[in-house]
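Closing statement on the iron/sulfur cluster sub-project.
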Amino acid sequence: MTDFLSELAARSLRREPLTREDALRVLDGEDELIDVVAAAARVRRHFFGRRVKLNTIINMKSGLCPEDCGYCSQRLGSVSEILKYSWIDPDQAAEHAASAVAAGAKRVCLVASGRGPGDRDIRRVEHTIEKIKDDSPDVEICVCLGLLGDGQADRLREAGAHAYSHNLNTSEAHYREICSTHTFADRVDTLRRAAHAGLSPCSGAIFGMGETSDDVVDLAFALRELDPDSVPVNFLIPFQGTPLGGRWELTPERCLRILALFRFVFPDVEVRLAGGREIHLRGQQALALHLANSMFLGDYLTSEGQPGADDRQLIADAGFVIEGTGERTLPDARHDLVALRRRGAGTDLPANA
Ligand code: SF4
């Protein structure tokens, strides 16, 4: 391993930020891939041991979206032959959640297509959360309903949601290439609303959409500014019938270097292997587990993932273990970073100036 990678791992273990130059070298430098993976894997093992957190997606409402995100099979004008349906019943969602929990999922992600929820949608989701919690009281519920309006994040939090997910997807500079109906800033605003309401912020990316390495770094650094607790890393699933349907630009090496970069940028944050891992990482999925500490189990929104039994085998074969419900995902040390103020105004001690 080169001095650069050893030093990078050491700095990441101390939670020191990467420079742009460091980040670009991880993506495009001449360091051997296996050395890059080994360096980032040190960081993953330090903060998360051998644990893999499993998450599952329930697509509550599929297709028929008025937005035009170019990667999405549910977008306006998509002719992908996906399932299209309106809201599923809360009982049906609770059944899916219970079987995913029995299969090892610690988090259930309730997702619905659309620009953002209306009042009736929020009521449906509140009811669904209640049903899921009746059967599986310990499961983490993450909600992903698009752009949030005033007061909606508070309602979801009060209903028992743990997290809100809204990906930034790509860099601000590249955003207009993939979507014209909302902006990067709209997405940032929703993430801030969710965090302000006390929901755990989840926000990630999709790679393989024509972005440059500078875009990858810009996005990683923009996400870092938002201080998410979880960061899903998707690789484009190029659905036929969407504008990006013909785009197959990723290699397993590119995916692994991106995951390594995200581990260095988010040393103690949940980095999740998400959509597209099977088709882009292919035989290298086990190596990816040395970088990500979390993954989706089962199917995605509109495409099928590999069988759950294969995922559990993959985890065991690579020497990892599924994280239990009672285990904390984020390392304790991260919480120690918050030091309650005991000096300055309101105390007898001098301020920290
Ligand atoms: S990503 Fe979401 S907002 Fe964009 S088209 Fe798909 S469902 Fe609609």
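Residues 65, 67, 69, 72, 74-75, 113, 115, 146 surround iron/sulfur cluster (CB under 6 Å). With this model delivered, the sub-project is considered complete and its resources will be redirected to Aim 3.
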